[in-house]
């Protein structure tokens, strides 16, 4: 489990030989929902695949036949071993009895048919739609347990969608996500692409008013991609003051800057404004793989507003 704890941001399932999910990382729970709460036969993913049509909603229809075949081959594999487990025998008997589809696939597969192997997979998420991922399967031969890991390649749509999973996950616990965007066309585009985010067509300098209009009094984090080095010092300070008031003493503000622009007067004035606004201003290391290379600022604990500041 220690390994899985370190993979919290990656969707990983631990499954037993008959398809029961024994453990899932938080990211897997965001992607597939909680797969560990059922009891009895319903606990088994292989059983549910053939007996509960809703189970298939997590995967693209184009993969359903393949998944059915993988499950049947996996169960053949269980039964062909030296000592087939009673529970695997019972499961196959029950599925042959309850599912004509399973019976058909069972008669056409053997344990030599492709079982649960590494391959490209298309997962369906209720908010994110189709998510193209790479499925890796690591097996422990002795116990028959498998780690099923869903990976994404940085720069792909699948990767961006995976990164949004925790955002959506927090919403299920009552959190809200607001995005302020000045450009109307961009705001419309973002609304279409990210239906779970409340996109507001507004200027960041009006952050306080935008929050007040929505009765939001507590902000955990402000994440900004604003082009700070294009802003004059007055605008930089004005927006930062709004951010500071929004996050209060408990929240965090983060933004990024490009390395090549760091020497520009406007970039320097931004850095100064950050230091005048927050007690804590941390710089990340330079991310060379970003194009162009960039670093981020993480700021906490706003300083109190100077008396007489408008
Ligand atoms: C560099 S893009 C960042 C895109 C995206 N947020 C990101 O971080 O990848 C900057 C965005 O900030 C928006 N923008 C610029 N000035 C703004 C302001 N005063 N208030 C709100 N949005 C602003 C622009 O329209 C543009 O979409």
Can you give a write-up of this model?
By secondary structure, the protein is of the alpha+beta class. The protein contains eleven helices and eleven strands. The chain has helices at residues 2-6, 26-32, 45-51, 64-80, 86-98, 100-108, 157-171, 184-193, 207-213, 233-247, 265-277, and strands spanning 12-15, 21-24, 119-125, 129-139, 146-151, 178-181, 198-201, 221-224, 252-258, 278-283, 294-302. The chain has a five-stranded antiparallel sheet. A four-stranded mixed sheet has the order 8-9-11-10. Helix 2 (26-32) packs across helix 7 (157-171) and helix 5 (86-98) crosses helix 6 (100-108). The longest helix has 17 residues, at 64-80. The structure holds S-adenosylmethionine. S-adenosylmethionine is lined by residues 180-183, 186, 203-205, 225-227.
């Amino acid at each position: 489990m220690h390994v899985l704890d370190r993979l919290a941001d990656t969707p990983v399932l631990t499954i037993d030989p008959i398809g029961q999910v024994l453990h899932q990382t938080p990211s897997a729970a965001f992607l597939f929902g909680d797969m560990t709460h059922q009891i009895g036969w319903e606990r088994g993913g292989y059983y549910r695949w053939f007996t509960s049509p809703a189970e298939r909603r997590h995967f693209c229809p184009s993969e359903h036949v393949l998944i059915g075949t993988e499950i049947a081959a996996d169960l053949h594999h269980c039964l062909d071993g030296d000592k087939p487990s009673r529970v695997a025998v019972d499961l196959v008997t029950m599925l042959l009895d309850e599912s004509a589809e399973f019976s058909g696939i069972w008669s056409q597969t053997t344990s030599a048919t492709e079982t649960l192997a590494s391959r490209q997979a298309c997962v369906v998420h209720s908010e994110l739609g189709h998510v193209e991922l790479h499925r890796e399967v690591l097996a422990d031969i002795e116990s028959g347990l498998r780690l099923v890991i869903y990976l994404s390649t940085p720069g792909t749509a699948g990767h961006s969608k995976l990164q949004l999973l925790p955002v959506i996950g927090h919403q299920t616990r009552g959190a809200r996500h607001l995005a302020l965007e000045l450009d109307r066309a961009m705001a419309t585009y973002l609304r279409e692409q990210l239906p779970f985010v409340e996109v507001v067509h507004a200027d960041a300098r009006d952050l306080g008013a935008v929050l007040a209009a929505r009765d939001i009094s507590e902000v955990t984090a402000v994440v900004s991609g604003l082009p700070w080095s294009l802003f004059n010092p007055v605008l930089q300070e004005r927006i930062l003051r709004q951010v500071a008031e929004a996050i209060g003493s408990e929240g965090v503000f983060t933004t990024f800057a490009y390395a090549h622009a760091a020497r520009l007067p406007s970039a320097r004035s931004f850095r100064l404004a950050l230091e005048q606004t927050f007690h804590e201003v941390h710089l990340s290391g330079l991310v060379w793989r970003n194009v162009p290379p960039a670093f981020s600022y993480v700021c906490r604990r706003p300083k109190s507003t100077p008396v007489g500041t408008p």
